[in-house]
Amino acid sequence: MVSTLTTSVKKRGRKPVPKKALTVKTPQTVALPELIAKREKKNPVTEREWRRYRKMQSLEMRQDLLSKYLPLVRNVASRMAMGFPRSVELPDLINTGVIGLVEAFGNFDPSRGVKFETYAVPRIRGAILDELRALDWVPRSTRAKSREIERAFLELENQLSRPPEKTELAKHLKISIEELHLSLEDVSGTNIMSLDEVIFREDDNRQVPRIETVMDTGKISILGEIEKDELRAFLVIAMDKLTAQEKLVIALYYYEELTLKEIGEVMSISESRVSQIHTRAVSKLRTMVREKFALTG
Question: pTM for the complete prediction?
Fold first, then answer.
């Protein structure tokens, strides 16, 4: 590379640039002690300053030392924020981390030969995690269950080269399928989304706030009301095609809201017999509705 540049300069009739001026120090050539020394220059806090502060206990010196370690808090908080949801804001983590920094500063003893950064980082992380746990409305057991299910899902996905079935997941976790369903219900309630978060729409791939994509499924539409009225009218006609016994069971069960046992007492038949009549009547009505409205499901 250097020889090519030198030849190019000679062709233009200019004085060649010395090779030393073209030598670039790549990251591989930079020594590790050199990087550490460069980083420590950003917070030049020496043992002498610590001893001097311990001796004088000046408020101004304390403030000066703490301000030099503030970038350390931001560095720790930034690294932790990468693993948290977007709802957790970096400034909040930094503010909490400063509390950990102040506590570490008050308990630090420089005579033990440990650097303050080494001593303070775990305290800063601990203060941030304690604050997040205090603000978390989800029980720790549910969080632990969520992490356990997620780890098992990833392990099976790597082994099978496909997403695992629920039966496979339950077997891997050594629990029943019913227990897995209950655990998934608990975990699903811990997910929180911000309505102000900007997302992409599926139809036009345009960025919009999430709240604009939320639809009110409980809102009654005119078309839906017409369909319900038409279905009710047809059920009245379809009921006439049932037997007298089937009509009575349907009327007592859905209109009078009696139990199968109570219906059996009224009709002087067994509860299992009432269940058979009810099943046969509902099956007939379902078949007639499908034929009338051309339903496939």
Answer: 0.41
